[in-house]
């Protein structure tokens, strides 16, 4: 498939995801529920439920457990979900983290290499994928773009999740994809920053040493108030659940928040960079 064939933001459903959706739909109908009536019972929107049944989203663990309880599915959904493969476009080492993201009540991100995936525009993401080595095919690039767009729905689908981003100033000086692509990316970030649950801070280029020099990091808090962390390298990622390790990363992120520009000063700096 060439890159011009499809511009859909939905990942292509896999056979496994479609099969799980069909099983869920069958149990839902057998229990006498519509999507609209089941949604409040399990604490998810009807739109989210429809996406699962259509095979367009990977079902989170919490979602599966609530459906099991509401539909009396005899453990069938729990067993079926273990057979699923994540949608194409997400690296295997990232899948566990991506699943937790869908449930997170807090998500913190520090990035020093590129604008984080959740904040990227399609043009910025495409520029990264086009330059990737080994080279990607048009079909692979489109698959990656679709998976990224699907993941970005977290920012709009979860208004009660607190998103914090700390971004190095030099990310906007590199001009990935060219000046216009970077200016569009800055405009997009400023628009997202207007949401009550999204905070973006910029780490000044002239800050010298700061607490994040060891590399990028992500932290998240689950609905059960458990914390996890994720660090990504060139060819793999590290999922961290050890409380002592997470405590260190939380302390570093807290220090970076104080070392970065304030929210107001960050927005002002981005406005100036957009107009440069």
Describe the protein's architecture and organization.
It is a single chain. This protein has 276 residues and is of the alpha/beta class. It contains 12 helices and 6 strands. It has helices spanning 15-30, 35-42, 46-53, 61-71, 76-81, 95-101, 122-130, 138-152, 154-157, 179-193, 243-259, 263-275, and strands at 106-111, 162-168, 198-203, 217-221, 227-232, 237-240. Strands 3-2-1-4-5-6 form a 6-stranded mixed sheet, sandwiched between helices. Strand 5 (227-232) and strand 6 form a beta hairpin. Helix 2 (35-42) crosses helix 3 and helix 7 runs antiparallel to helix 8 (138-152). The relative contact order is 0.12. Mean pLDDT is 88; it is low at 1-12.
Please describe the topology of this protein.
Elements: H1 15-30, H2 35-42, H3 46-53, H4 61-71, H5 76-81, H6 95-101, E1 106-111, H7 122-130, H8 138-152, H9 154-157, E2 162-168, H10 179-193, E3 198-203, E4 217-221, E5 227-232, E6 237-240, H11 243-259, H12 263-275
Parallel strand pairs: 1-2, 2-3
Antiparallel strand pairs: 1-4, 4-5, 5-6
Helix pairs in contact: 2-3, 7-8, 10-12
Which keywords apply here?
single chain, 276 residues, alpha/beta, six-stranded mixed β-sheet, 12 helices, 47% helix, globular, disordered N terminus
What can be said about this structure in brief?
47% of the residues lie in helices and 12% in strands.
What sort of overall outline do the alpha carbons produce when their principal axes are compared?
Answer: globular
Question: How large a portion of the residues is in β-strands, by DSSP E?
Answer: 5-15%
Structural class: alpha/beta
Mean pLDDT: 88
Number of E strands: 6
Distance between the termini: 38 Å
Radius of gyration: 20 Å
Biggest sheet record? 6 strands, mixed
Biggest sheet strand line-up: 3-2-1-4-5-6
Number of helices: 12
Question: Low-confidence runs (pLDDT<50, min 5 residues)?
Answer: 1-12
Helix share, percent: 40-55%
> H/E element string?
HHHHHHEHHHEHEEEEHH
